[in-house]
Design brief:
The chain has 497 residues and is α+β, with helices and mostly antiparallel strands. It folds into two domains: 214 residues, Chloramphenicol acetyltransferase-like domain (Chloramphenicol Acetyltransferase); 188 residues, Chloramphenicol acetyltransferase-like domain (Chloramphenicol Acetyltransferase, 2-Layer Sandwich), CATH 3.30.559.10. The protein has ten helices and 19 strands. The protein is globular, with a radius of gyration of 24 Å.
C-alpha cells in the first residue's frame, strides 16, 4: 500500500514566551573551549513523535507550558541569552528572558507519514523552530524554542536548542526533565515521578580557557553549503543484526597450525563474552582465559603470541558504514577518507566532569585511511582503526585538543569539503525514548534540517532497545542510491515493520 505524502506545511496557530517558574540563581556561564566552536553551527533540532493523548488541545498545551516552565527553573541557562563582553569573552547570561513556545497544526500529516522507510516529507522539517539559525544568534534570539505540532492522529514535540550552549548529553537531560515535569503534573496517583538530577553548572575545568575567539561583528557563518541536493534516510539495525556484525568485526584467525585453526569471535552481552572455536572446541579452554570484557590481552598458544582487541558494536557499525559510503562515492584508491566520531569527554578528563555537566563536553576524533585501504582491507581493519583512536582519546589527549585550540581558536569545521568524509554525531546511548509526558513513550525520534550535509550521520537508539540502533544518514543522492544497493551494507539493515 502506498502511503500518501502530505503536500502542505504546518500552520502556525500561536506563539508565546514561556518563563521559568522560579528566578535563576545561576551566575553567568562562560562558554568553554567545547562551546565556542559551536557558535557557527545550527541550533540542535530534535523531537519526539507521539500518538494522540486523552487531553483536549487546550489542556495539553497548558500542561506542556507549565511543565516547560518548571523544567526551565532547573535549567536556567536555556532561558537566558548570549552576551559578549568588552574583552571578547562569550557568556550565557541566566536572565530568565524565556524561551519560545509555538503551537502549530499539520492535519494532513499522520503518524505513519513519519514512520515509513525512505525519505521523510519535506514539510516535516517545519516541525522545528529556528530553522538553520546559527548559534551565534543566541545573542539576540532565545536560546531555545519548543514547537508542538498537532497531526491528524498524533503530536510531535520538537525542540531547537543553541548548540553553543548544549551538546547531546545536556539536550536529552533537559528533554527528559521536561517530560518528567509534565508527567508528574498529569499524574493522579501518589506515585513519585523520578526527576533527572539537577545539572552541574560549574565552570572550573580545563575546558574553560583564557583564550579568546575573535568573531566578526556580524557573527560567524556555517562552514558548509545549505543548497547542495541531499537525501536523508533512517536505516535500522536490530540487536540480532548488530550481534552478527560485531562478531564479524571481532573474528580473527589466531592460530593456523596444520589441521588446527582457531577463530575468536566476541558475542555482545552485558554479563559475559563467549568464545566460538572451530575444530570441535579443542582449544576452547585455552581461549576462554584470554578474553575479557573491553580489554586487550596477550597470551601464548602453540608458542605463538596472540593479541586481540575487542571491537564494540558501535565501532563495528561505523566501520560498515565507512566502507559502504566510500564504495558508493567511487573515490580513487589514493584519496584520503575521514571518519569523524564525536566523543563525550566528561568521563575522559581527570578529574572527571559530573555526568550531568551542563554544556558542550565533546571532541571530534578523526580517523584517516585511503579509499583503497578502506575497501581492500576487511571490516575488522576499519573497525580497529576507529577503536584505536577511541581508546587513545584519554585525559592527555583531551587536554592536547584543548591546547591545540587555544593556540589557534576557531570554529568547528562542519561539512564535507573534500567529498570523502563521514561525520558521526549523536549517540545510541542517549535516553531518547525515556521521554514519557504522561501518555507513553515516543513512537519515534526525528531531527530537523540543522547541521546536515553530505556525509552527516546521527546515531539513535531504536525504540525496541536491547542494543538496536537507528542511523539517520544524509548523503548526496547518487551516494545514497549506492549504499541502498550495497549488499554488504544492506544485509545488516532491518526490514521496516
Amino acid at each position: 500500500m502506498t502511503i500518501p505524502t502530505p503536500s502542505s506545511s504546518p500552520i502556525l496557530l500561536s506563539k508565546c514566551i514561556v518563563f521559568p517558574d522560579q528566578p535563576s540563581s545561576v551566575a553567568d556561564l562562560k562558554l568553554s573551549v567545547s562551546d565556542l566552536p559551536m557558535l557557527s553551527c545550527h541550533y540542535i533540532q530534535k523531537g519526539c513523535l507521539f500518538t494522540s493523548t486523552n487531553l483536549d488541545p487546550i489542556s495539553l498545551l497548558d500542561l506542556l507550558k507549565s511543565g516547560l516552565s518548571r523544567a526551565l527553573s532547573r535549567f536556567p541557562p536555556l532561558a537566558g541569552r548570549l552576551v559578549t563582553d568588552d574583552d571578547g569573552y562569550v557568556y550565557i547570561k541566566c536572565n530568565d528572558a524565556g524561551v519560545e513556545f509555538i503551537h502549530a497544526n499539520a492535519c494532513e500529516f499522520f503518524v505513519r507519514n513519519l514512520l515509513v522507510p525512505g525519505d521523510l516529507p519535506e514539510g516535516f522539517k517545519e516541525f522545528f523552530a529556528f530553522d538553520r539559525m546559527v548559534s551565534f544568534a543566541g545573542h539576540f534570539s532565545p536560546i531555545m524554542a519548543v514547537q508542538i505540532t498537532f497531526l491528524a492522529d498524533g503530536i510531535f514535540i520538537g525542540c531547537s536548542v543553541n548548540h553553543a550552549v548544549t551538546d547531546g548529553t545536556s539536550f536529552w537531560n533537559f528533554f527528559n526533565t521536561f517530560a518528567e515535569e509534565c508527567k508528574a503534573a498529569k499524574s493522579t496517583t501518589t506515585k513519585t515521578i523520578t526527576i533527572t538530577p539537577t545539572p552541574d553548572f560549574r565552570r572550573d575545568s580545563v575546558l574553560v580557557s583564557p583564550a579568546v575567539l575573535r568573531l566578526p561583528p556580524s557573527g560567524p557563518k556555517v562552514t558548509f553549503s545549505n543548497d547542495v541536493p541531499l537525501r536523508e534516510r533512517i536505516f535500522s539495525f536490530s540487536r540480532e543484526s548488530i550481534l552478527k556484525l560485531k562478531a564479524k568485526a571481532n573474528e580473527k584467525k589466531l592460530v593456523d597450525n596444520g589441521d588446527l585453526t582457531v577463530t575468536a569471535v566476541e558475542i555482545m552481552g552485558k554479563q559475559s563474552n563467549d568464545m566460538y572455536c572451530q575444530n570441535n572446541g579443542k582449544v576452547g579452554s585455552i581461549l576462554g582465559s584470554w578474553y575479557k570484557n573491553d580489554t586487550v590481552t596477550k597470551q601464548h598458544a602453540d608458542s605463538k603470541a596472540i593479541s586481540m582487541t575487542t571491537i564494540s558494536s558501535f565501532q563495528s557499525l561505523c566501520a560498515l558504514l565507512w566502507r559502504s559510503v566510500t564504495r558508493a562515492r567511487k573515490l580513487p584508491p589514493n584519496k584520503t577518507t575521514t571518519f569523524r566520531m564525536a566523543v563525550n569527554c566528561r568521563h575522559r578528563l581527570e578529574p572527571k566532569l559530573d555526568p550531568y555537566y551542563f554544556g558542550n563536553a565533546i571532541q571530534s576524533i578523526p580517523t584517516y585511511a585511503s579509499a583503497g585501504d578502506v575497501l581492500s582491507r576487511d571490516l575488522r581493519w576499519c573497525a580497529e582503526k576507529l577503536n584505536e583512536n577511541v581508546i587513545a582519546h584519554d585525559n592527555g589527549m583531551v587536554r592536547r585538543f584543548v591546547e591545540d585550540w587555544e593556540g589557534n581558536p576557531g570554529m568547528f569545521p562542519l561539512g564535507n569539503a573534500d567529498g570523502a568524509s563521514v561525520t558521526m554525531g549523536s549517540s545510541p546511548r542517549f535516553p531518547m525514548y525515556e521521554n514519557d509526558f504522561g501518555w507513553g513513550r515516543p513512537l519515534a525520534v526525528r531531527s530537523g534540517r540543522a547541521n546536515k550535509f553530505d556525509g552527516k550521520v546521527s546515531a539513535f537508539p531504536s525504540r525496541e532497545g536491547g542494543g538496536s540502533i537507528d542511523l539517520e544518514v544524509v548523503l548526496a543522492p547518487e551516494t545514497m542510491a549506492g549504499i541502498e544497493s550495497d549488499s554488504e551494507f544492506m544485509q545488516y539493515v532491518s526490514a521496516p515493520n
